[in-house]
Design a protein that fits this description.
- The structure is a single chain.
- By secondary structure, the chain is mainly beta.
- A hairpin with a 5-residue loop joins strand 7 and strand 8.
- The chain is elongated, with a radius of gyration of 18 Å.
């Protein structure tokens, strides 16, 4: 986890040194999805089972091109995310608290001369999560997660120093713990961000 944080810090420093203008902001997100959980330590007797998930998140972010000018933008989100999984076959649940780092590599697709920016591109996620099941408060686990999927966003400048952004992303993620449980997840999330220049 220390290496991940160090890498993200290095990326931010390099961007600050090289980018002409970087916007800083705060974001919030909501989403839901499904997951295939596999293992034997969470639900005794189950080797594989399907679950529904919902998520809420918040954090800080930077973007190298909130304004409509330019083709490429890089967006870095770092924040907290709460995940709740519920089994489709039994009234049992799993709760996870995650530290997430999302990177968006966006390419503008709007017409030149517009006052907003529409972008699309891939999103890459790295996460560190801790959680427990509803079966036992002593049954806890720690997982590392990776995710990848498409993202699309629109940046709207309400005032010179107050742009807002809306984003939708669909991620395929895999979380695992060493020699333990793991799950493959699919989630659709919607987010809103406010930038301060």
């Amino acid at each position: 986890m220390t290496k991940v944080i160090s890498l993200c810090a290095a990326i931010v420093i390099l961007l600050c040194l090289r980018a002409e203008a970087i916007d800083f902001g705060l974001y919030g997100s909501l989403g839901s999805g499904t997951a295939d959980w596999k293992g034997s330590t969470i639900f005794s007797g189950y080797q594989s089972y399907q679950m529904r998930s919902r998520l809420t998140g918040a954090g800080c972010m930077i973007d190298t091109a909130v304004a409509p000018e330019g083709l490429f933008n890089y967006r870095l989100n770092a924040g907290y995310e709460a995940l709740v999984f519920k089994s489709r076959d039994a009234p049992r649940s799993i709760r996870m608290n995650s530290l997430v780092v999302d990177q968006d590599f966006g390419f503008a697709i709007q017409e030149p001369g517009t006052k907003h920016r529409i972008w699309i591109g891939p999103e890459l996620r790295v996460a560190y999560a801790r959680g427990r099941s509803s079966l036992s408060t002593s049954e806890r686990f720690t997982m590392i997660g990776l995710g990848l999927g498409p993202a699309i966003g629109v940046n709207i400048r309400l005032a010179d120093s107050f742009p807002v952004s809306f984003k939708a992303s669909y991620l395929w993620t895999e979380y695992s713990e060493p020699l333990g449980d793991y799950y493959d997840g699919r989630s659709l999330a919607f987010g809103m961000a406010v930038f301060f220049r």
